[in-house]
Amino acid sequence: MLSKEKILELAEVHDTICVSLYMSVHKKGTPVLNRENQLEFKSLLNSVKEVLISRLKSKKEIEAFVSPLTNLLKDDDFWRNQQAGLAVFLNRNRLQYFLLPDQVRNEYYISSHFRLWPLLSFTNRSGEFHLVALNLDQVRAYKASRFQMEEILRDKLGQVKFEEIVGTDYEQKYLQFHSQQSGFDQSHYHGLGEGKDDTKKEQLQYFRKIDNVIMSALKSNSTPVLLTGLDHFIGLFKQVSKLPNLMPQHLPGNAKGIDIHLLQERAWKIMHPYFEQKNRQLIDQIAESMAKGKSSSNTDEILESAVEGRVDKLLIADQEDIWGIYNPSQKEVKIDNTHTSHNISLTNLAAMQTLIHGGEVYVTSRESLPPEDLRLYALYRY
């Protein structure tokens, strides 16, 4: 699943040759039957091989380097199960690809690092969050977005067992409750242990342990956390939770047995207004920062500030690379009109340095940026 963490992981990769490929794909129909996706991928692959002639010693070495891409080209099952876009990253040690929910421009990039900033368009629009489904059988946690959701921490959360807290009378006290848990229905909560302090203490102890597991895994993660479960469990969990990004709203009802796609859709309906509000706040913050002089549209200043960790928020005009060379020791920037074999994407450099230092990066239309001919805009921490 595409996430900011995955992008940061790839941003740490530096090698003599790193290949980044982006392309739009067909999901179904005649183009798929005619293998048009593979033909376009083959065209990009051939372009990559042409560039590698000047970087590798022989045709044999080139073929060995691109062999993971060649194998992907031949994988018919892979091409039959696509979305709207594809991003592929290759160096000597790894092949990583992401299926993208929207189309992208067909292009390739070869350097000592991956060109990753176009992926941020999808993490921005999709709105990353975590979903925690509370249950006495087993709590489940998910990494989610507008487009997808996957389970995480299954083994670690599975080690926290409620019956071990309750002890020998677990079955007597909770069997009826477990047998009636189903779907998003609040009515099956039959006063489980109502009025019994020991029962409440057991549940609080259980949820405290669950919270510790989640806190340990997400301690450096700033994404919001949405809870789903019976209202009683939500209330108890919030009493003991130390999660700093816990959403005040929750998705009511027991999620046990619910299809993961349906669960993701219902969760997104709650989270969507939150991300819309964040975007509105960003626009207000831009205006405020401009008034206070805590922002810049100067590429030289932005790059230096990003490397030093001073950029709080970076805005990038969609599909607008700035090409050039950055000399960190001299803090000098040379901007070129086009991409060559000797320069890099300064846009990518600014974006990755901002992320690495804990800042946020937003890919937006040029019309959303301040009323200038801008491709980069930075809001500073200080």
Protein architecture, described:
It is a single chain. The chain folds into three domains: 4-125, Translation, Eukaryotic Peptide Chain Release Factor Subunit 1, Chain A (2-Layer Sandwich); 127-276, 2-Layer Sandwich (Nucleotidyltransferase, domain 5); 293-380, 60s Ribosomal Protein L30, Chain: A. The strands form four sheets. A five-stranded mixed β-sheet has the order 7-6-5-8-9, sandwiched between helices. It contains 14 helices and 16 strands. The two termini are 34 Å apart. α10 packs across α11 and α13 runs parallel beside α14. The chain is α+β, with helices and mostly antiparallel strands and 382 residues long. Mean pLDDT is 88; it is low at 187-195. The radius of gyration is 25 Å and the shape is globular. The protein has helices at residues 4-11, 30-33, 36-52, 59-74, 76-80, 120-126, 154-158, 162-166, 170-180, 197-218, 231-240, 260-292, 299-307, 346-356, and strands at residues 18-24, 85-90, 95-100, 107-111, 129-133, 140-144, 149-152, 225-229, 246-252, 295-296, 311-317, 323-327, 332-336, 344-345, 360-364, 376-380.
